[in-house]
Amino acid sequence: MSFHRVPLLAAGLATLCLPLLGTQAARANGLFSHVATVRVAVSGAESQAQLASQLRAEGYTNVVLSSVRATPANPHPESDSTLTSHPEQTPVHTGWNGVASKDGRTVQVYAEFSPASDLGRSLAMIDATR
Fold it and tell me: Which stretches does UniProt call biased (Polar residues) (predicted)?
């Protein structure tokens, strides 16, 4: 490459890149996204049908609970009807149990086992989307 071609190459690259300077690069705000969740304190002897009734009584709709936890290989088990068909026979398990909707937003449902004295404060909406 001769001495005279270097400025031409630089000018050509600058011309190609100028349209990109005005655009905002796509990026995430952090490593993890924020998801609205509802945490439910349960005694440990409840079925998912009882948990669904409790959520509906608190104003949640479209409650879909799964008999298995979400995994990287199966991130949405609530969409498999064979895993959601018998909530009256499925015990509530610690952690993620499914999804529900409230005020037009889908929330993730998490169960936390608590002593009977803590069950008075059973539902706590954690809004992590701000």
Answer: 80-92
For 40, residues 6+ apart whose C-beta sits below 8 A from its C-beta are 51, 54, 55, 109, 110, 111, 112, 122, 123
Q: How far apart are CA 21 and CA 18, in angstroms?
A: 5
Entry pTM: 0.62
Sketch the domain layout of the chain as residue ranges.
Answer: 37-126
If one counts every other C-beta atom within 10 angstroms of the C-beta of residue 118, the result is 13
Residue carrying the six token digits 């079925």: 47
* Helix extents (H) in 22-127: 48-57
